[in-house]
Specification:
Blueprint lengths: L1 E9 L10 E9 L4 E2 L1 H13 L2 H7 L4 H15 L4 E7 L2 E6 L1 H33 L3
Antiparallel strand pairs: 1-2, 2-3, 4-5
Helix pairs in contact: 1-2, 2-3
């Protein structure tokens, strides 16, 4: 069973132009895992960088914090989402497992579907917010 919550948060862009509301998704899985934009961004960055430590640096996160987030997912999902890659001359690294890639794909699909479903409502909320300034 997947429970989810939707949070409407303002865009983090700077500037005087009013930003549109957007949807932020966090999945609370029956296993106890909590999957939100931070963990998904970390997994995507690990896939891009090929390293937990490089992914953490890219996201301004310590290696320890990045490792803890990955281990939390591995423990709660019961299967690794990131696998170590033994290194040669350049050292080791990390890669997403098939389960990790599937988790990212499912999260992004849920996010897209939710954004599409919420768009008319967010536009209405935005109109009301804009009129109160």
């Amino acid at each position: 069973m997947v429970r989810w919550r939707m949070t409407i948060v303002p865009s983090r862009s700077k500037g005087s132009v009013q930003q549109a509301a957007r949807v932020s998704i966090r999945l609370d899985l029956a296993s106890g895992a909590r999957v939100g934009p931070g963990k998904i961004a970390l997994l995507e960055e690990i896939a891009r960088q090929g390293s937990i430590s490089a992914a953490g640096r890219s996201l301004r996160m310590s290696y320890r914090r990045a490792w803890e987030l990955v281990e939390d997912l591995n423990r709660h999902l019961g299967t690794p989402v990131v696998a170590a890659v033994t290194g040669g001359s350049g050292g080791g690294g990390a890669r997403l497992t098939a389960e990790g890639a599937a988790l990212v794909a499912a999260y992004r699909a849920i996010e897209r579907a939710t954004e599409e479903a919420a768009a008319p409502y967010l536009a209405t909320i935005g109109e009301k917010e804009g009129g109160q300034g």
